[in-house]
Amino acid sequence: MKVSYSYLSEQFTDPDPILNDIKSLIRSGEFTLGKHLEEFEQNFATLCHTKFAIGVASGTDALRLSLIAFGIGVGDEVITTPSTFFATIGAIVTVGARPVYVDVKEDYTLDPDLIEKTITPKTKAILPVHWHGCPAEMEKISQLARKHNLTVIEDACMAIGAEINGKRTGSFGDAGCFSLHPLKPINVWGDGGVITTNSEQLRDKLLLLRNHGLKNRDECLFYAYNSRLDPLQAIVGLHLMKEVDWIINRKIHHANRYDQALAKISEITIPPRTPGVKHVYHNYVIMAERRDELYRYLREREIDCKIHYPLPQHLQQASQYLGYQTGDFMVAEEQARKIISLPVHQHLTPEQIEYVIETITTFYHYILP
Ligand SMILES: Cc1ncc(COP(=O)(O)O)c(C=O)c1O
Hints:
369 residues; alpha/beta; Aspartate Aminotransferase, domain 2; Aspartate Aminotransferase, domain 1; three-stranded antiparallel beta sheet; 15% strand; binds pyridoxal-5'-phosphate
């Protein structure tokens, strides 16, 4: 049995409803900004329980423009996690700021108890990542930020619909950043991103930043960027938004079954669960003894597993200039040695999930009761 990691080949079997709306866009000639984008932004804000959402060109730009909107740049420090995708750090570095890493907890997110000792007069922001779809500990992070007068920018690129006590990711910080990349739950036909916020002032700044700083067609308030979300992608996003609850619930259902079966295997650590936290399992990540062997064993049996990622950010060549070393972040480093992501997407069948469980069980010679 083949178990794919990606769902893309199964997702758009009937693209006609989307294509019909795109045809009407073509007839209208409204190829930038406009009513489709506004409708998408309103619906996205509702989804994230925020007042505003601003569509931009990618998740990376969502992070970059948020940092820029808060005036963060050369000489500033931004506290973040070494367990993240390259773009989190790329955004900080390319605006001219310096990433300051803090180790993660068992749930793979920033450890708030380690933040305070890294704050310096240059610290301007904390940038937690809701890694793999698990919300970071936002209450403690926000408290610290208030105490030290720091901005909080959430990297929620993997965490649409995740919650802490009913409050959605993207609604805790000063800004929340989302990706609409094809491998994300609302996955447009190319690149896209969104910033959420409750601040009208920030919304107005971001609308200018993404559109050349233009007050109107002929007047520019400040020179800025072209980072608009295309209306074509907004149309695709509007269709996919209707499915997002179903997608999240299917993934949570698969994760529950994995948890139940894999918790019995002593060589495996299942993702920790925190009361009140809704993890959306963008990736279902376990820690496994003999990880590399297990990885090969699963792939030889047509189970498409992944490693997100084998090297934490502080040990990447691109971070060398920051001066970190092996041993600086023990939790993140141990996780990088042991983690493996199992297929968990919405189109998997119960038989496929059972096949993954049986294969892992056989690998560890564990007899299912
Ligand atoms: C945690 C995280 N941050 C940022 C990004 C960047 O998003 P995009 O690919 O839309 O630029 C991603 C995308 O994979 C991500 O997973």
